[in-house]
Design a protein that fits this description.
Layout: E1 9-13, E2 20-26, E3 33-34, H1 37-46, E4 64-72, E5 75-87, H2 109-116, H3 131-146, E6 151-159, E7 162-163, H4 171-176, H5 180-188, H6 199-211, E8 218-225, H7 240-248, E9 254-259, H8 270-273, E10 277-280, E11 283-286, E12 294-295, E13 298-299, E14 304-310, E15 320-324, E16 329-333, H9 343-346, H10 348-365, H11 367-374
Antiparallel strand pairs: 1-2, 2-5, 3-5, 4-5, 6-7, 6-8, 8-14, 9-14, 10-11, 12-13, 15-16
Helix pairs in contact: 1-3, 1-10, 3-10, 7-10
């Protein structure tokens, strides 16, 4: 599966129960130096760590460099298209023997059957397992963005009906981004929250759902700081919102993306929705950030803020109605296997990766600037 970015070349390959999965990443200037520490950290954040929200499936997710990187003094240097792979170790395709011809409700099974003529075990190329190589590419992108002073931080904002802290209720976060101290804490946490006081409330929402053999959805928010006004994006099809949303929708189970106040703006008057300008230490700023740091598709100098809605994990143990496609008979399906009871928790680094990739593609469009920053 290849991306449609303008400069950055991303190809993610493999399937949930294939021998290996991986990513090829092209478009980076030769000689670009990397440590891969952010990529490794992103993979670690994505892992199942035994929480009530996570699948029991454990994978080591140790990235293996195939090509495109050569050893350098501080780590590696780009020497062509980067090819990094991960071995799938803990696979159990027999868990899916009973659903080879029975599509799981709200999975890609039936649509894939109509397209490919088969249902792949574990979701095949549509599986959330493919977000592991996405996180490798996203970690590389985030490492390069940091050298330009651009920071990307995602966190869990809500689960089901349980609300956590949000940029929508914090003017400081909305305008300036997540503090470096909070960012470090969030990225080290098994349940990445903007405010730790919501931990028990959100955990209980997941626990109750899981105990009932069900699942629950959630909202992941992402905040980008360090983008200069006028630096990224343009009008119409070149808009920064369009590019970020395109990238974020590569993450399975995403069903909605909004920037700033998003849909709430439709219920406001212009006087309440507008972000008025002010001067702060000689710089033009806004008093609020309901636009999410983007106007006319272009970064306006405020933090870029977005919310991403994740549907509940479709794989649940409760009986559901389906159809046996080989017999064309209705049937009842109870899904076995190992699944996240709240997919949104482990999707946090995936959203962060997708946003970082979109921003890096924008940076590559201004190649002179990125070469100035990373060399």
């Amino acid at each position: 599966m290849k991306s449609n970015f303008e400069k950055l070349e991303i190809e993610i390959f493999g399937e949930s129960h294939a021998e290996e999965i991986g990513v090829r990443m092209g478009g980076l200037p030769r000689g670009t130096e990397l440590t891969l520490k952010d990529a490794e950290r992103m993979l670690d954040r994505r892992k199942s760590r035994g929480g009530v929200w996570a699948t029991p499936r454990k994978e080591e997710d140790e990235p293996v460099i195939i090509s495109g990187l050569k050893r350098a003094e501080e780590g590696y240097a780009v020497d062509g298209t980067i090819d990094i792979r991960i071995k799938n170790g803990n696979v159990r395709p027999k868990d899916y023997d009973g659903v080879a011809c029975v599509p799981r409700p709200s999975h890609a099974d039936y649509a894939a059957y109509a397209k490919d003529g088969k249902i792949s075990t574990g979701g095949g190329r549509f599986s959330g397992r493919l977000t592991a190589p996405l996180c490798i590419a996203g970690g590389i992108a985030e490492e390069l963005l940091k050298t330009m002073g651009i920071r990307v931080c995602a966190y869990l904002a809500s689960v089901g009906g349980a609300q956590g802290a949000s940029y929508k209720t914090s003017t400081d976060v909305a305008l300036r981004g997540v503090s470096e101290e909070d960012e470090a804490r969030i990225k080290d946490s098994d349940l990445p929250l903007l405010d730790e006081s919501a931990r028990e409330r959100l955990t209980e929402e997941i626990r109750v759902s899981a105990a009932d053999g069900d699942s629950v959805g959630g909202v992941v928010e992402c905040v980008v700081s360090g983008l200069e006004a006028g630096l990224f994006g343009d009008a119409l099809f070149e808009g920064l919102e369009s590019k970020i949303a395109y990238s974020v929708y590569a993450v399975p189970a995403v069903k909605g993306v909004e920037f700033g106040s998003g849909f709430e703006l439709s219920q406001m008057r212009g006087s309440g929705a507008n972000d008025c300008f002010t001067l702060e230490n000689g710089s033009v700023r806004t008093l609020t950030n309901r636009s999410g740091g983007i106007n006319g598709g272009i970064s306006n100098g405020m933090a870029v803020t977005l919310s991403v809605a994740f549907r509940p994990t479709p794989s649940i143990s409760k009986p559901q109605r389906s159809v046996n496609l080989s017999e064309l008979k209705e049937c009842e399906l109870s899904i076995k296997g190992r699944h996240d009871s709240c997919i949104a928790v482990r999707a946090v680094p995936c959203v962060e990766s997708a946003v970082a990739l979109a921003l890096l593609d924008e940076a590559l469009k201004i190649r002179d600037a990125i070469e100035l920053y990373i060399k």
